[in-house]
Amino acid sequence: MNPEFSLVGQKLTARSGILELMDDLGRAMTDNPNMLMLGGGNPAAVPAVQELWRTRMESLIVEGIPFDRMLGNYDPPQGNPRFIRALATLLKRTFGWEIEAENVAVTNGGQSAFFFLFNLLAGRMEGGRSRKILLPLAPEYIGYADQGVDQQMFVACQPRITWPDGSDSHIFKYRIDFTAVETELKTNDIAAIAVSRPTNPTGNVLTDDEIRQLAVLAERFHIPLIIDNAYGAPFPGVIFTDAQPFWSPNVIMTLSLSKLGLPGTRTAVVIGPAQITSAVAAMTAIAGLANGNVGQQLVLPLVESGEILDLGTRHLRPFYLEKSNLALGWMHEFFDSAGLDWAVHASEGAFFHWLWLKGIVIPTKELYRRLKARNVLVVPGEYFFFGLQQAWPHREQCLRLNFSQPAEVVREGLRIIAEEASAARKTE
Predict the structure, then answer these.
(1) Which of 5, 215, 236, 351 could lock onto 259 through a cystine, CB 3.0 to 4.6 A?
(2) Are 296 and 348 in a shared domain?
(3) Is 99's pLDDT higher than 80?
């Protein structure tokens, strides 16, 4: 049989960055135990958090009825009523946000949430219009790139590169070019602004002022601002700098349980206007009937008590900050000794270092292939600049590196990267 795929089918089955990433990740974990895993976004095994989830599962089993209901019943498409009420109550009580249960919807992971949101708001409209999602800061999360059912759904803005510690430092930071953002809002038919905070892949945490400016612009142009908090505030809280959670009536926020150590439960939350959350629930019903129950039940008492807001501060932030600092030290050790012209984005949150190899003469897709042949798995930077129209050599000079793996894995991976990058650098 040789079935003919629809245009949508062809779009969703084409080779994509996220498919290559997840395929490499899965194959490496099952077929190649020697692979040094500096690719992917899998959280680390944080002992205190693992113990918490084991204890919660044991409690559900001992209680009996909640465990049976968790496995034996469908919840409504919007999510477990007790869970969404508890979350709305917690956020309203803690941050003063004017939200109720109707402003909350659960999805089967953050990837599903963004597939629903992007295609709900952007793409072909009645009357022949085509609306787009504006990414105010490229690079942005690889998982968004191919989610639009329609082609060319994203428009991205090139950032300003700043040097917080001076231009002779190895630390740089991207900042939003608000002039470029406003130009795109005026030029294109933009359906929503979307950002991740911390930004995946760079670990950049948009400042409170940047977020407020984006929210003001979104309100001015009568569109929502979508904030992806997969790593951020109010939970899981893998943030190394001061950043306040932000929500307003024209904001759509997503939260996830994955980086709390529960990626296998595939549980995410959309918080937004009731018109949006009810639409997400309707799409959930069509695509999957209901959401998974396990994640919601595991975290329910932590949401009701408010403890979920403290997990990041107590366990996750110090764990990942130490990992980040160790990796940065090994970069100095190996990259400096190799004579590389390199820089890394300021590590302000999440699990990644964003490495800029300024002197490299091959695209990082080619460097990725060479590293893979040496059992080092990374993610090439080219995949993260979708929606950016102008040519920019920078996009072929960057790698995303996951520093959450065991120390010996990260250290050896960075040593091999230094060797391969040195072989591919400019020479005088």
Answers:
(1) 236
(2) no
(3) yes
